[in-house]
From TrEMBL, chain A:
Family that this chain belongs to: Belongs to the universal ribosomal protein uS2 family.
Top-level taxon of origin: Eukaryota
Region (Disordered), start-end ranges: 1-38, 375-399
GO biological process, one term: translation
Short name of one Pfam family: Ribosomal_S2
Protein name as catalogued: Ribosomal protein S2
GO terms assigned for molecular function: structural constituent of ribosome
UniProt xrefs under PANTHER family: 30S RIBOSOMAL PROTEIN S2 PROKARYOTIC AND ORGANELLAR (PTHR12534), SMALL RIBOSOMAL SUBUNIT PROTEIN US2M (PTHR12534:SF0)
Organism, as annotated: Penicillium arizonense
Keyword Secreted: no
UniProtKB/TrEMBL annotation, chain B:
Family that this chain belongs to: Belongs to the mitochondrion-specific ribosomal protein mS23 family.
Keyword Mitochondrion listed: yes
Keywords: Mitochondrion, Ribonucleoprotein, Ribosomal protein
Official protein name in the record: 37S ribosomal protein S25, mitochondrial
InterPro entries: Ribosomal_mS23_fun
Pfam families: MRP-S25 (PF13741)
Subcellular location: Mitochondrion
Coiled coil: none
Primary subcellular site in the record, as a coarse category: mitochondrion
Acidic residues: bias regions: 245-261
Subunit: Component of the mitochondrial small ribosomal subunit.
Length: 399, 261
């Protein structure tokens, strides 16, 4: 009976036109054919008969199956006459239904099938799976995020010794590289490395933060300089907070001592106490010398000797991170700390930036109330000739 | 002024002097700031803190029921310190240093295990209680043994160092064994569920090594050929060279025979 069906199947004929009734060829059909096919056609030995009967009896046992048993044991190629091959779950579930008449609503299998049949897009399925998955395991509450120090630096009042310790500010250099002028910042020697005293670091850091805040509150120009690889973002963030200026590339020697040549093309502007630009003074800025910072914060004084020297020549106070191998007299306010760890320098820059932010907030608040902590420049002063100190056209009047 | 450049430390004085002498027309904004918050006394040397090794023990003293905490300070050296070293920083010493060296001398491969050096807040020690060796959020390692041993020395009356070491070590070994079993079971479970772990590091290493051997064999064969050709070329015609060696061998054999006879 199977052979006849196969022959009538047009698909099969198309695929194997030469020998449709020959032994099933595994290589061409792809699916394993039941071996009983050929035996049925030519001879029926006893064993095969027994098998055949078993199959028939099984068929008899399950009369109520949706698909006739013949389709199950035949070639699995879908026939045009019969139903398409039914998937496994309904076939398995039906005997249970027969044996135990559970009402449809209570049967968990039915519910499961219903749930499966309810159309869910793959995206929704993934979502639900993810929701299930995320319920599992533990939740990590406090974890270290290196970006946190850059995004949200702490305030000077939040500085703790533990914070400094975690940032590694206490690690100095090898004892052989020390600068004896730093001896009062050094707590001891450990494994051949000088350990910087954390309480001294915290004290000097707070002092420096206070200076930054006060200078910012007096409307001073603050320059943050960190020219080491990787300090860029910390420097920019600190300058952003303190409304200051930043250098993360090389300090061009002479930028202070020879400012007209190097920074002459740079833009300057006149602002009022509320930081609003006053455009009417634009013309008066033409002959002005380049501006000088009121405070320089240097994250790596070892590489920026020229900058600090120029600050000394121009009488600009400086704040610097001083490691055990640096010279603390190069800067006005040293902060003894590890300057090789990016985390440590980022922390210190962030704290100083926050201090500057506080100062700026204070200054703007006072300005809104009509007060200033500094002596403002009057319009006539601004219009004076920068070289002679006389009002414009004053020389002509003199003559 | 000598070698020390005090310009940076004297910015305020310089600014005031320049203003007084008329070099600058007005004082900078920061003058009163620097006056209020003066720069630190950088160059004043202070005697650094002299760290001493202190040992803490709990001891029962005859006549009292309660054990007492006893602190033992390491004896001072007989030889006085050189005067030139008065202002030099001193080595930091802690009691657990010796315990640590001892542990890692006995278990050198513990140093080969990966370790977390990062501290997120610096307050990890607050969560630790060394009355037991396992700590939340800390991997079991040699440092756990050291800290556990130190806790025992501080808190158990009349305990000797070696006893404390043995207790801490035994706890450590037991947990390490359990870790091994956990790892093995997890691997078996994963394999049962169809995980494939790929070739092991040993297999990869052996493969690379055999590749290198094969390369060497090819190179050596080539070299041998080159050397053979060179010797042949040096002795004139290659056929002659081979013939002559053959005859030499034959002659030598004959001479041997003669000698034996």
């Amino acid at each position: 009976m199977q052979g006849g069906e196969i022959q009538t199947n047009p698909k099969w004929n198309n695929r194997r036109p030469q020998a449709p009734t020959a032994k099933p060829d595994k290589s061409s059909s792809g699916r394993p054919q039941p071996s009983c096919q050929t035996h049925l056609r030519f001879s029926i030995p006893k064993m095969i008969v027994r098998k055949f009967c078993m199959r028939q009896s099984r068929q008899l046992l399950a009369v109520s199956r949706r698909a006739p048993i013949s389709t199950r044991f035949q070639s699995t190629i879908p026939t045009t006459l019969g139903e398409p091959v039914v998937p496994a779950p309904p076939q398995e579930s039906e005997p249970i239904l027969q044996s135990e008449p559970i009402p449809r609503a209570e049967n968990p299998l039915i519910e499961m099938m219903n749930a499966q049949s309810q159309a869910k897009t793959p995206a929704q399925q993934e979502e639900s799976q993810r929701a299930k998955f995320h319920k599992l395991g533990t939740s990590v509450k406090t974890s270290y995020d290196p970006e946190n120090i850059l995004r949200n630096p702490p305030k000077p009042s939040q500085v703790t010794l533990e914070m400094l310790l975690a940032a590694g500010t206490h690690l100095g250099h090898s004892t052989s590289r020390w600068n004896p002028q730093n001896s009062r910042y050094i707590y001891g020697i450990r494994e051949g490395v000088h350990i910087i005293s954390l309480d001294v670091t915290a004290a000097y850091l707070r002092r420096a933060a206070k200076v930054v805040e006060e200078v910012a509150a007096r409307g001073g120009l603050i320059l943050f300089a960190g020219t080491r690889k990787g300090q860029k973002r910390a420097v920019v963030k600190a300058a952003e907070l303190a409304k200051g200026y930043h250098i993360f590339e090389r300090w061009i020697p002479g930028s202070l001592t020879n400012g007209e040549q190097i920074l002459g093309h740079c833009e300057t502007r006149v602002v009022n106490a509320l930081d609003e630009e006053l455009l009417e003074f634009k013309a008066d800025l033409a002959d002005r010398p380049s501006l000088k910072p009121d405070l320089v914060v240097c994250l790596n004084p070892l590489e920026n000797v020229v900058l600090l020297h120029e600050c000394g020549l121009n009488n600009v106070p400086t704040i610097g991170i001083v490691d055990t191998d640096a010279d603390p007299t190069r800067v006005t306010y040293p902060i003894p700390s590890n300057d090789d760890s990016l985390r440590a320098t980022a922390l210190i820059a962030g704290i100083l930036g926050r201090a500057g932010e506080a100062g700026q907030v204070r200054r703007l608040k006072m300005a809104r109330e009509g007060q200033t902590t500094y002596k403002p420049v009057s319009a006539t002063e601004l219009r004076l000739d920068p070289f002679t100190g006389l009002p414009p056209g004053g020389e002509a009047q003199k003559k | 002024m000598g070698k020390i450049n005090l310009t940076a430390l004297r910015v305020r004085q310089t600014a005031l002097n320049q203003f007084a002498s008329g070099k600058t027309s007005n004082l900078p904004q920061w003058v009163d700031v620097v006056g209020d918050i003066p720069p630190a006394e950088t160059l004043i040397r202070t005697r650094p803190s002299q760290h001493q090794l202190v040992q803490q023990r709990l001891k029962t003293i005859t006549g009292s029921t309660k054990p007492q905490v006893v602190f033992e300070v390491q004896e001072k050296r007989r030889k006085p310190k050189k005067p030139s070293r008065t202002f030099m920083p001193v080595e930091l010493k802690y009691e657990e240093d010796q315990l640590r060296t001892e542990f890692f001398r006995d278990h050198p491969w513990e140093l080969a295990r990966p370790r977390v050096l990062l501290e997120s807040t610096g307050k990890d020690f607050e969560h630790y209680d060394w009355s037991r060796i396992e700590q939340p959020g800390k991997r079991l390692d040699g440092e756990s043994v050291v800290q556990r041993q130190l806790w025992l020395l501080h808190n158990v009356p009349d305990i000797s160092k070696s006893t404390a070491y043995d207790i801490a070590r035994r706890e450590f070994y037991r947990l390490r064994l359990r870790e091994d079993i956990q790892r093995r079971v997890a691997a078996e479970e994963a394999a049962a569920y169809g995980a494939e772990f790929g070739p092991s590091y040993m297999d990869i290493g052996m493969k690379q090594e055999s590749e290198q051997y094969d390369k060497w064999v090819a190179w050596a064969r080539n070299q041998a050929q080159i050397m053979g050709q060179r010797t042949a070329a040096l002795s004139g015609a290659p056929e002659l060279a081979t013939e002559s060696t053959e005859t030499d061998v034959v002659e030598a054999d004959e001479s041997d025979e003669v000698a034996t006879q």
